[in-house]
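Exercise 3.2. Students should predict the tertiary structure of the chain below and write it as structure tokens, then compare their answer with the key that follows.

Predict this chain's 3D structure.
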Amino acid sequence: MEEFEALLNESFEIDTPAEGSVVRGKVIAVEAGQAIIDVGYKMEGRVDLKEFANPGEAPEIAVGDEVEVYLDRVENARGEASISRDKARREEAWDRLEKAYAGEARVEGAIFGRVKGGFTVDLGGAVAFLPGSQVDVRPVRDAGPLMGLKQPFQILKMDRRRGNIVVSRRAILEESRAEQRAEIISKLTEGDAIDGVVKNITEYGAFVDLGGVDGLLHVTDMAWRRVNHPSEILSIGETVKVQVIKINKETHRISLGMKQLQDDPWDTVEAKFPIESVHKGRVTNITDYGAFVELEPGVEGLVHVSEMSWTKKNVHPGKIVSTSQEVDVMVLEIDTAKRRVSLGLKQTMRNPWEVFAETHPVGTQVEGEVKNITEFGLFIGLEHDIDGMVHLSDLSWDQRGEEAIQDYRKGDMVQAVVTEVDVEKERISLSVKALEGDPFAEAVGGVKRGSVITVAVTAIEDGGIEVEYEGMKSFIRRSDLSRDRSEQRPERFQVGDKVDVRVTNIDNKTRRLGLSIKAREIAEEKEAVEQYGSSDSGASLGDILGAALKGDDK
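Answer key:
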């Protein structure tokens, strides 16, 4: 009996499969959405029909089919074996996928669901995660057409213990695209002109499909003229003729151009736009240093800020011209090597200083508003937006400039006389005091150096006396009060005395007369000597002067 029992137990251990293993069974019936499977060993189990279907497909199972199932438990509460087709497929799939991952081989699967950050993929029993960034070489907006479609994937990462698999569809596409690109690129040569379809438009250019490989058409190579955005001249889906400019064999990048198939307008610039010729152009761009003006499609010139206005020196170009405005410009310089044209805007208008010099000769009276007050004078606004300056010394005949300027305020209307126009230095000198006659000039108009004039004493000081002539004040120093030192005393004069003096100097700048009583006396003595005697006649000076005085009385 002991031997029989041992043999019986041994037969059970051999014949009865272990729970958690994959066993082979036969479908003996299909009913109520389930398949009844005989797994042998007098055991039957039930499996839902959906476990025999691939995602998005109908189940394919019939009575008599042999299938592999996973044995969870030998006997459940109903006395049946607890089996699963899904788990069997998963175990089988994991074994297969691990071999593919180790050999870096592709695996086939189908996208069947969307999850956060990507999609779920059925790899024949095992579920993998497909990140959104790995679906295609470019972002996919609508993944609907890809759902349920059997296609190859590359396994990026897998962890059987955690049940994680990450796959990529993009890696497959890039590999196939690389092969395709290499084949197409091998047939292209730089300089070829071919047709392509605009596939995508960006800020910096457009991608053109050349029949399986894309080339970049940069915005600067679309036209000879300035193109602000590629969408100005291209649209997605449009067929365009392009030239292959450059091919990078290592990166498989292709640079394309459209303008290279057109005539370069710079070849005829010098003939069309001679130096100092005037042309009408359109402002295309405004910067801090000037404005770009298009003379013709593909030919732009720069109007530097210094060449924009005769009068507006420190103003932003945007306050003088506006984008798309049509303006007249003069060609100042052409550099075909650097593809540069220097233009001038102000040269198309007359120099306002030249115009002013013609219409306002020296001596013309003008009127304008005080624009600015500085430590050296006033700036007066004149016609054509130009300014004239009244120097401190030209404000008043009587007051010092620093005092006279205190009477003026910004915005005051002032009349003045043009005293000088310097066109080259763009400078106009004005004078307010010139509106009135010069009292000093009028007072000393008939007076010359050496003349004897009569003055009135107005003040007595220790150093001399102050006198007045025709309203002009002068000062006679103590040393000039008399020929005799004993008579050089200011106190011998009184305010109101009339005194004859000799003019020794006329200073128009300081507006002062140099006067001297001493000089008059010396001159009179000299004249008397010349008329009534000589140094060797023996006559005394008193005799001579007495004779001279008697002669004056006759």
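Discussion points: The mean pLDDT is 81. The chain has nine helices and 30 strands.
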